[in-house]
Amino acid sequence: MEAIIFGATICIQLNIIVLFVIIFIWLNEEWTTPNIIFLSSVILTIFGYLVYCAKEPNTMHKLTKDIRTVLIFLTFGYILSPVLKTLTETISTDTIYVMTILMFLTHLIFSKYGSLQISLSDSLSITSSIFGSLMLASRLASPSHAFSLLTVAVQCFVLLPFLMYKLSNKIFISSFLTFSSLYFLLFVSQTISYVFIVSIVFLHFICPCWYVQCQRYKDNIYGPWDEAVITS
Question: Whole-angstrom Cα distance, residue 41 to residue 33?
Answer without folding.
Answer: 13
